[in-house]
Amino acid sequence: MQETAVGAIPAPPAPSPAEAPRGGGVLHVALIGNPNTGKSTLFNALTGMRQRVGNYSGVTVERVEGRYRDDQGAVTIIDLPGTYSLSASSPDEEIALAVLTGHAPGIDRPDVAVVVLDAANLERNLFLASQVLELGLPTVVALNQVDAAEAAGLRIDAVELTMELGAPVVPIVATRGEGLDVLKSAIRKAPGLDRPGRRFELPAEAAAALKPVEQALVDAGFNASAAAMEALRLLAVQHVGKHLSGVPGLEPAVAAARAEVEAAGLLPTSLEAESRYGWIGGVVDSCVTRAGHSGRTITDRIDAVALHRAGGPLVFIALMALVFQSIFTWAEPMIGLVEGLFGILSSAVGGAIPEGDLNSLLVEGVIAGVGSVLVFLPQIVILFLFIGILEDTGYMARAAFIMDRFMRSVGLHGRSFIPLLSGYACAVPGIMATRTIESRKDRLATIMVLPLMSCSARIPIYALLIGTFIPPVVVGGIFNLQGVTLLAMYLLGTVTALVVASLFKRTLLRGQARPMIMELPPYRLPRVKSLALSVGHRASLFLKKAGTVILSLTIILWALATYPRTEPAPRMTDQQAQEAQLANSALGRVGHAIEPLVRPLGYDWKIGVGIVSSFAAREVFVSTMGTIYGVGSDADEGSSSLRERLRGERHGSSGALVYTPLVAVGLMVFYVYAMMCMSTIAVVVRETGGGWTGVRWAAFQFGWMLALAYGSALLVYQGGRLLGWG
User: Residues 661, 468: contact at Cβ < 8 Å?
Assistant: First the structure.
């Protein structure tokens, strides 16, 4: 593709009144760039702690906004999701495109777009930049990491690049705050500059074929420049996207354009890439000087080990072992501190308020509900910290690359690895992390199996049942049977997730395998401030998503366990009165009602109550057992009194022990597979499309996981009895 002179391209039309910068002194800026360009670091450097995290209307894609002030007033920045293009093939890309074109619900079109480029990877980054330049927005280019580019022997002429792009280019080093004042000045001046527009020409046949598509978009409210960019993009995508689904006549026009382009001997799927990269090649040749640079970089030397065919997987396994060992080791003191603080708060509130329903509501409902969420926050924060370190250093992309071959063998995409890894802490952020998977079918397959990864909420159940019923005997002269049992539960969930994903990808979610294209960024030291902000945002999002649901349902469960009231019989002990109250409460009646269903698994009505209560969140099972057996709702997995009650519990009719090692193993297997988390269900509904579409996917997931849990627990218990292990 021949590069054309800038002057040969017609200037984009003047902005309409609707596109003019808004008044009031507040400038609205959209920050966009490829992953690993330092975009988030720049956002944090500009806005500091003046940030807020929410969601875009109708979707669960995070909406991160920040603000700073200059001498002319306030500037609000929206940090758009990192993306390699505006192809709208993933939720993140759809949101980025919708915001930039002014079609995101509840968000006005930004006044300025700031495109962040990695100076060391200019050619690849310019693809996205060329798309943004066409949208008719005042644009500023932040040329980041120029120090790393110079270290690699690359010198970029920012003035020449400005002339080529038709937009101001500001060299910066976001990690050190260099160039930020100049960038802020360029952002403030941008609305008064000419709009960049398209910088290359299409073949005449393709340009003519796309005219009806462009006209349909203009009729729908796009300006001419943005319509041209959208029309070219639509040639290569499989669907027009949600934000364009209502444009009259658009899909027939796109289909006709594809046919005309093919008739002209051109490939619709590659036309955009060929046109853009043809122009980009000329830009790079004119702006970049490559100095002599001999020898391997630090990144090359590290990758020689980290990506080695044999050594790479070993390094990966060692790092993952370190991560999970740290999660469980480092979190223990903090978990104990949280439990202690809530124990003190519970005692203080319980002692200050007279006995009665209000006391019970606050202590066993509100405080217990909040505590049940916050007690797991240390583990989740530590996992987010490690994930942030792996991302910021550049290793996370290598881990996905290493896992890609294995993930493909079971039908999953290499990018599924990161969400599945997150699932070990909590399925909620894990499911949200699937937004980076471009294929909807790959994304759905990952979401459908992700709750099988043993999250931290299962740990109290495993710890209670293993510590109570599995003897600490030595196995093989090295291992402890309790540790082996815990490992078996984790492996059971993980292996099953991979098997079920393979089944889904070969049946319900069958689709063409897509190659994983991922940038391997240079290794860098993470910045403490940026890391702290990232972990804080993720933790707050977890608390908002999971905490509110768990708190609400804990209060509901308290009410079900408290009413209707049962008057204690004369000479009845407190423990007997508590058991009688629970047995006759609404929750107890539910337990009695489902007892015939759970009896084949070896469970009694009390275990049934624990299962029903843990639909709010799995970890509620332990506190429910504490309430049922008179130990108290604040009982945890290490409570010796609760363990003694479980060991001594007997069936009233036969006098046989309720809990045996076989029953305990079957119950753990049930919790490995059962979808016992309302927070996860709520996120699945939103991430799979929302509305009835999301409800159907969530119901399907809940149904097959419950059937698998019941069938597996039945097999363990009844099979064990046939083998004489009962």
Answer: no
